UniProtKB/TrEMBL annotation:
Annotated gene: atsA_35
GO molecular function: arylsulfatase activity
EC number annotated for this UniProt entry: 3.1.6.1
Keywords from the named record: Hydrolase, Signal
Source organism (scientific name): Bythopirellula polymerisocia
KW Repressor (keyword) present: no
Protein name: Arylsulfatase
UniProt key word Signal: yes
SUPFAM superfamilies: Alkaline phosphatase-like
């Protein structure tokens, strides 16, 4: 079909007028009392057995799939971590954030980065807190603190407690960041008498004690804090955002997991992560809240091809046995080249790229009271959809769930096998964009330049793939389908301007 030339403004007007912001639905018969989101770091589909891994055993993550819903077409919004985490918190695509500028992303990792979420934005944690949920962000944060830069010697505000979290026990950046301390509440240095939470103690002379991060015990510590939060919150609704460091560099499994996998230290670390997921499952069972708790396991982006140059250096270890620091330098490369491990399965590409391997991730949802056990879906699901999906599960007709977040609760409940997402937008950290519409995927071969909030796509070289017949992106069809390319470019532009309404069916 020949694409009709219609102004972008007219298309936007049509979408705005035709699509209602909320639907008048009957009150829900059942809602999850608690919500737990577990986000792993750099874990691809090939790292999880229930997604087809032949080299790593993950019995606890597999259990979630056996007792819930496994999503086969789950995507992150970016192929690196901070923009995807931004999307989870805000329901917005990375291009609507400072991360649209690749230079910002680079400087963000190097300096005392500011909070990347404006305080006037609706956020998932604030939505949950306003509805009576006790909220916690435990683990890797990597979205910044402070207005211009974080004051790591004082009170680090604004931060997670300012966007809706009651409790924060965090890793400021990455597993290999330079801070080597945990953030508790709003400070690395906290008085012993003050509990984590939104309360402020601004006296610069206050007595303080920092909590050192031990590299091979980071995720063990995070799990203990998460279990403590669940224990303290079991009598009331709670929302837990638990972000692990595994399997980001440094690859430093706890001593009792070293040598347990078939592919070296990366496999050991993944098995430790699976063990911690099991501890969270066990804690929910011990508190008697399994049936009423929605737990979602996913990853911030696909797996990384090789270890970074600083891997294995400047470590603080509880146990140095097994040459853990030395092996951390090459753990991912050894798993790939010596043992044949495919961190993203047969998908093309890795973390940081624009192809499927950087974006397709494990995503499993278990809620015994509401989700049927042992089911799978091919419906397209973006992690930006978590905000609207969870909001619609816990509340009737919620508003302000982020411009790009689509309610996919019917997918989780088994009521819509095709899902509500019509187009999926992907953003590489260097500024390249991709859009998936149906089975077609269009991607730019170079970074996109912007005019206001509209991408300039006309002169960019393009690749085009039919994912239904070519899921591994081997056959570029761009030269044979010029009309389809123009159609997909138009869909991308409208979706970026209009938001969720233009991305949904």
């Amino acid at each position: 079909m020949k694409l009709q030339v219609v102004s972008l403004a007219f298309i936007v007007l049509l979408f705005s007028a035709a699509v209602p912001k909320t639907l008048n639905a009957a009150p829900k018969a059942i809602t999850p009392k608690n919500v737990v989101i577990i986000v792993a770091d750099d874990v691809g589909t090939g790292d999880v057995k229930c997604y087809g891994s032949e080299t790593i055993d993950t019995p606890n993550i597999d259990r979630l799939a056996d007792e819930g819903l496994l999503m086969r077409a789950a995507y992150t919004t970016c192929s690196v971590c901070n923009p995807t985490r931004y999307s989870i918190m805000t329901g917005r695509l990375p291009f609507r954030s400072p991360f649209r500028d690749p230079n910002f992303a680079k400087s963000f990792d190097k300096g005392k980065f500011p909070l990347s979420i404006p305080l006037d934005l609706p956020t998932l944690p604030r939505f949950m807190r306003e509805r009576g949920f006790h909220t916690a962000a435990i683990g890797k944060w990597h979205l910044g603190y402070g207005e211009t830069e974080a004051d790591y010697e004082g009170v680090m505000t604004p931060g997670p407690v300012d966007i809706g979290f009651d409790v924060h026990f965090g890793v400021p950046g990455n597993h290999n960041d330079r801070f080597e301390r945990f953030v508790i509440g709003d400070s690395i240095y906290r008085p012993l008498s003050v509990e984590p939470g939104p309360a402020r103690v601004d006296d610069p002379t206050r007595p303080a004690e920092s909590v050192e991060r031990i590299d091979d015990l980071v995720d063990t510590t995070l799990t203990a804090r998460a279990c403590e939060f669940i224990d303290n919150s079991a009598e009331r609704p709670f929302f837990l955002y638990l972000a692990y460091c595994a399997t980001h560099t440094h690859i430093t499994p706890r001593a009792d997991f070293r040598g347990r996998s078939r592919i070296g230290q990366l496999g050991d670390y993944m098995m430790e992560l699976d063990h911690h997921v099991g501890e969270i499952i066990d804690q929910l069972e011990q508190q008697g809240v399994t049936e009423e708790t929605l737990i979602i396991f996913t990853s911030d982006n696909g797996g990384q091809e090789n270890d970074v140059k600083e891997a294995g250096s400047s470590l603080t270890l509880a146990d140095e046995t097994g040459e853990v620091a030395l092996k951390a330098r090459t753990a991912k490369r050894i798993a790939r080249t010596k043992y044949g491990h495919k961190t993203n399965g047969p998908l093309r590409g890795y973390k940081g790229g624009i192809h499927e391997g950087g974006f397709r991730v494990p995503c499993i949802a278990r809620w015994p009271a509401g989700i049927k056990a042992g089911i799978e879906t091919e419906a397209a699901f973006s992690l930006v959809d978590l905000f609207a999906t969870i909001a619609n599960l816990v509340a009737d007709n919620p508003e302000k769930c982020g411009e790009d977040s689509i309610d996919q609760s019917a997918v989780l409940l088994g009521e819509n096998e095709n899902g509500q997402r019509r187009t999926t937008i992907l953003n590489a950290p260097n500024g390249r964009l991709a859009v998936i519409s149906g089975s077609w995927k269009l991607l730019t071969r170079k970074p996109v330049k912007w005019k206001a909030d509209t991408p300039k796509l006309d002169s960019l070289p393009i690749e085009l793939y039919d994912l239904a017949n070519d899921p591994y992106e081997k056959n570029n069809l761009a030269s044979s389908r010029p009309e389809l390319i123009e159609q997909l470019k138009a869909e991308l532009k409208v979706a970026l301007v209009v938001g969720a309404d233009a991305q949904s069916h």
